[in-house]
C-alpha cells in the first residue's frame, strides 16, 4: 500500500507504509513519549536560533518533562486507555507551530501520526523538523520517532485521499472551506473527524485595573496583547478583534493609557505592510456604511480603532487583520452574551475576578466561548481545545468488567 507521489516527505527520510500501519499504539503519556518530547525540548532550547522565534521557545517549554508529568496527572485516571491508531492531522496555514502541538497531542494520546504541514514555508516549522531529525538518530528514541510522518503538499494533491483512507481519526485545523474540501475524502467506517473551524475571539477589560498598574505592568500587558493579536497578524482564531470595556469613571483615561502602551509596543515590533493599511481603511468604510461607528484618533495605522454605540448581532463579520479593533462600552459582562454564537472561541480578560467570569458563563449558558484566559495567554496551547479534551478524543477506553 502506497500513497501517490505528489507530496514531499519532511520526516522521516523514507517510509515503509505497511510497517507504519501495522505498528502498535501506546498508552497515553507513556514514558517513551515523555522522554522523546523532553529530548526535543532540550534540543530546541539549546539552539540559539530558537531564540529568534518566541513561539518555538513556548513550544519547547510545553514539551518539557516537568510540564508533561503535570499534564499526565491532570489528564489520566484509573481507566485503561490506548491510542486509537493512526491520526491524520491537517495543520493550519496561519499559525506555524500548530503542527507541532497537534503532533504532541497525538503522541501523548498514544497514537501514530501523519501530519500535513502547511504548504507555506515558515522558518519555525523547518527548525522544529530539523531537531526532530536530530533526536531521531538516538536509538533509544526511535520507537517514538517511528510513529511520526510529516508531509507537505499542495491542495491539488491526491495524498489526502490515501491518508484519510488509513486514518482512525482525522484532525482538521483550518477554515470552513478547508474542512469541506478535506471531508470529500472518505474515512473508514469506524473513523471520525475532529474539526477546528473558523472562529472569532474577543477581549474584556476593566478600566479600574488599568489605572492601578504601574509602567512595568502596563508594558507587560501591552506585550501580552501584542502576542495575542499581532504575532499572527490577527489571523489566529484566538486573536481578539472586539474589545469590551466596562463602564467606570476611569474608563476614558484607562482606555487612552492602554492604547498608548499597545501602540508603542506595536510600533517597535511590528512590520506593517502597506496593503494592511488599505485593508483597514476599507474595513472602516464598510463598518461606517452598515452601523453607527466612530473612528478613534491614533498617531498612525499601526493600531486602528473604532467605537460602537450599539452592538450588532453580526459584528464578527466586520473583522479585519493587522491591528483593527472595534470597541464597545458595557455596563456588565452580560451585554456580551447576545452576540455569542458557537463561532466564538476565546475571551481574553484583564481586571476581572474568576468568580465574575464563572458567574457570567453559568448565568448566560452561552453557545460559544470555550476558553476564557488572561490577556497574553490566548495563543497558549492546551490539551483542552475548543471545548474538547484531546486526550479523550484521540484515545479509546478498554472496558474490563
Please describe the topology of this protein.
Elements: E1 8-11, H1 17-22, H2 31-46, H3 54-62, H4 65-75, E2 80-83, E3 86-90, H5 98-108, E4 112-117, H6 123-135, H7 142-145, E5 148-152, H8 159-165, E6 169-173, H9 176-182, E7 192-196, E8 200-205, H10 207-212, H11 215-229, E9 240-246, H12 251-269, H13 274-290, E10 293-295, E11 304-308, E12 324-330, E13 344-350, H14 354-364, E14 371-374, E15 384-385, E16 388-389, H15 390-393, E17 395-398
Parallel strand pairs: 3-4, 3-6, 4-5, 6-7, 8-9, 8-13, 9-12, 11-12, 13-14
Antiparallel strand pairs: 1-5, 2-17, 10-11, 15-16
Helix pairs in contact: 2-3, 2-6, 11-12
Notes on the structure:
The protein is 39% helix and 20% strand. The chain is α/β, with parallel strands linked by helices. Strands 10-11-12-9-8-13-14 form a 7-stranded mixed β-sheet. Strands 1-5-4-3-6-7 form a 6-stranded mixed β-sheet, sandwiched between helices. β3 (86-90), α5 (98-108) and β4 form a beta-alpha-beta unit. α2 packs antiparallel against α3, α2 (31-46) packs across α6 (123-135) and α11 crosses α12. It is globular, with a radius of gyration of 22 Å. The model has no long low-confidence stretch (mean pLDDT 95).
Amino acid at each position: 500500500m502506497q500513497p501517490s507521489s505528489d507530496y514531499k516527505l519532511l520526516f522521516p527520510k523514507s517510509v515503509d507504509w505497511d510497517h507504519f500501519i501495522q505498528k502498535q499504539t501506546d498508552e497515553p503519556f507513556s514514558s517513551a513519549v515523555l522522554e522523546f518530547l523532553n529530548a526535543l525540548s532540550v534540543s530546541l532550547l539549546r539552539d540559539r536560533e530558537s531564540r529568534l522565534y518566541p513561539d518555538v521557545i513556548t513550544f519547547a517549554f510545553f514539551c518539557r518533562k516537568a510540564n508533561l508529568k503535570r499534564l499526565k496527572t491532570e489528564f489520566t485516571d484509573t481507566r485503561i486507555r490506548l491510542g486509537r491508531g493512526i491520526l491524520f492531522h491537517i495543520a493550519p496555514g496561519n499559525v506555524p507551530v500548530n503542527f507541532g502541538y497537534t503532533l504532541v497531542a497525538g503522541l501523548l494520546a498514544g497514537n501514530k501520526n501523519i501530519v500535513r504541514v502547511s504548504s507555506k514555508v515558515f522558518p519555525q516549522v523547518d527548525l522544529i523538523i530539523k531537531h526532530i531529525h536530530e533526536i531521531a538518530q538516538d536509538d533509544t528514541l526511535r520507537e517514538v520517532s517511528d510513529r511520526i510522518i510529516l508531509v507537505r503538499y499542495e491542495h491539488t494533491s491526491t495524498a489526502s485521499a490515501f491518508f484519510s483512507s488509513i486514518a482512525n481519526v482525522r484532525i482538521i485545523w483550518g477554515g470552513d472551506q478547508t474542512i469541506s474540501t478535506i471531508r470529500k475524502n472518505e474515512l473508514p467506517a469506524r473513523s471520525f473527524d475532529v474539526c477546528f473551524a473558523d472562529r472569532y475571539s474577543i477581549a474584556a477589560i476593566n478600566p479600574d485595573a488599568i489605572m492601578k498598574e504601574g509602567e512595568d505592568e502596563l508594558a507587560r500587558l501591552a506585550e501580552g496583547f501584542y502576542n495575542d493579536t499581532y504575532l499572527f497578524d490577527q489571523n489566529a482564531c484566538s486573536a481578539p478583534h472586539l474589545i469590551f470595556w466596562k463602564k467606570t469613571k476611569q474608563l476614558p483615561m484607562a482606555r487612552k493609557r492602554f492604547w498608548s502602551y499597545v501602540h508603542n509596543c506595536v510600533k517597535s515590533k511590528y512590520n506593517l505592510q502597506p496593503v494592511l493599511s488599505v485593508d483597514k481603511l476599507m474595513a472602516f468604510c464598510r463598518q461606517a456604511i452598515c452601523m453607527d461607528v466612530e473612528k478613534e484618533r491614533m498617531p498612525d495605522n499601526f493600531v486602528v480603532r473604532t467605537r460602537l454605540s450599539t452592538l450588532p448581532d453580526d459584528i464578527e463579520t466586520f473583522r479585519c487583520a493587522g491591528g483593527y479593533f472595534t470597541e464597545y462600552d458595557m455596563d456588565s459582562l452580560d451585554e456580551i452574551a447576545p452576540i455569542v454564537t458557537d463561532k466564538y472561541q476565546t475571551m481574553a480578560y484583564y481586571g476581572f475576578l474568576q468568580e465574575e467570569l464563572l458567574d457570567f458563563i453559568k448565568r448566560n449558558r452561552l453557545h460559544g466561548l470555550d476558553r476564557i484566559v488572561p490577556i497574553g495567554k490566548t495563543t497558549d496551547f492546551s490539551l483542552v481545545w475548543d471545548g474538547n479534551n484531546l486526550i479523550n478524543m484521540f484515545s479509546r477506553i478498554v472496558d474490563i468488567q
